[in-house]
Amino acid sequence: MKEQEEAERRFMLRAAELAAYAVDHGLGGPFRAVVVKDGVIVGEGYNQVTSANDPTAHAEVMAIRNACQQLESFQLTGCEIYSSCEPCPMCLGAIYWARPEKLIYGSTRFDAANAGFDDAFIYHELALPENQRNLRISFQPHQKAVEVFRHWKDRENKTTY
After folding, report:
1. Could you say which of 6, 8, 60, 101 is catalytic?
2. Per-residue DSSP letter, 53
């Protein structure tokens, strides 16, 4: 147990130190994540939203992409993700899709909000019915959009996930 706790502290320290590095070098916001498998870091990512002009380039997403490339897999089975901060809703969704064994984070979304990174509006919006959200959302049913699911379902040579 003590060995596991020490490993968790070490990997969290790595994520926090790299977050500070990213800030010091103007690479993006103060967020960093590492992916660990069998006690070894297999992927790292830092926030690149402003440097890459990509609103999806959050630390956790970048770490997942990096780890999946390294592991040559679209899932992080048997992995742990260490994030310097509690993941936002987008990153949490990506983490669920990646299917790691565990997520460990070092600061809360409230700590991030105090620094100007407030995603409370997203949590609020997601709880509202679509017709009450700030983002205008419209459902336009289309037969082709439905048929592609039947095509996928009937396909024998597919990789499910």
Report:
1. 60
2. T
